[in-house]
Specification:
Oligomer: single chain
Radius of gyration: 30 Å
Order of helices and strands: HEHHEEEEEEEEE
Shape: elongated
Strand order of the largest sheet: 1-2-3-4-5-6-7-10
Number of strands: 10
Distance between the termini: 62 Å
Low-confidence stretches: 1-35, 216-222
Length: 249
């Protein structure tokens, strides 16, 4: 009886060792699965920006065809510097994708009369990023909507073209036009981890707004199309600080 018991134990011993080895092998698999989570963090922050916006015609900057004589309008500014601020909130997925929302305001002063172009916009964005130690380069796209508010105050009394018909040459002492738009905004950027919860964000974009190019106050209202590319537009540089659950490699 004892001999049979010993034979049984010896026969079952390899099975026990095999099961133990399998149990040891399964542990790293579980750790691997836990390390490859879909949701890997969240973050948000504020960013300041500056940029250079331009158009090919002053009437597109102010969105008003009744600015005065041709010679006067030709001398108006059609480009300039802009500055502003905004913020974003985002969620991190699989340690390589950001999904979130953002909103900004931007101011472009023109002339010395108070004329300016103010732009406000907001939308959703997605980008892909890589992990290079403490640095995370990224490339992405934002889509959404906003509005341009254009204030024009002349620096002198506008002069009408004497050769034009009265109904084709309407001038204004000042004008204010608010133009809503849809936009697409491709961007590239980089994050530099300062701690596990704070990172420096640097981003460059080029917003592409599409909306009305004329105020519709004159006979050119039939040329208004919502599919038109709006100006002024141009590149902006963003610098800010992000806070949240940021993976530090």
């Amino acid at each position: 009886m004892r001999k049979q018991f010993i034979i049984l134990v010896l026969a079952l011993l390899p099975l026990g060792l095999t099961a133990q080895e399998q149990g040891v092998d399964t542990q790293p698999v579980k750790e691997k699965k836990s390390s490859s989570k879909v949701f890997t963090g969240f973050s948000g922050g504020m960013l300041l920006h500056g940029g250079y916006l331009f158009a090919d015609d002053p009437t597109k900057v102010f969105s008003n065809t009744g600015l005065g004589s041709f010679e006067y309008v030709k001398g108006l500014p059609k480009s300039g510097l802009c500055f502003g601020f905004g913020g974003m909130l985002r969620v991190h997925f699989i340690n390589h994708i950001h999904l979130g929302g953002e909103g900004y305001v931007s101011h472009m002063p023109l002339m010395r009369t108070g004329s300016n172009v103010r732009t406000g916009w907001g939308g959703a964005f997605a980008d892909f990023y890589a992990n290079w130690g403490k640095t995370r380069p990224m490339i992405g796209l934002s889509v959404g909507g906003g509005a341009m508010k254009r204030l024009y105050v002349p620096d002198q009394d506008p002069v009408n073209d004497p050769g034009a018909a009265p109904d084709e040459n309407t001038t204004y002492n000042s004008s204010y036009v608010k133009t809503p738009f849809f936009y697409m905004d491709p961007y590239v950027g980089m994050e530099i981890s300062l701690t596990s919860h704070i990172a420096l964000m640097i981003r460059i974009d080029y917003m592409l707004p599409f909306g009305r190019t004329s105020s519709g106050l004159t006979h050119l209202s039939e040329d208004v199309k919502w599919s038109n590319f709006m100006t002024p537009s141009g590149p902006r540089l963003y610098v800010g600080v992000m806070f949240g659950k940021l993976k530090r490699d």
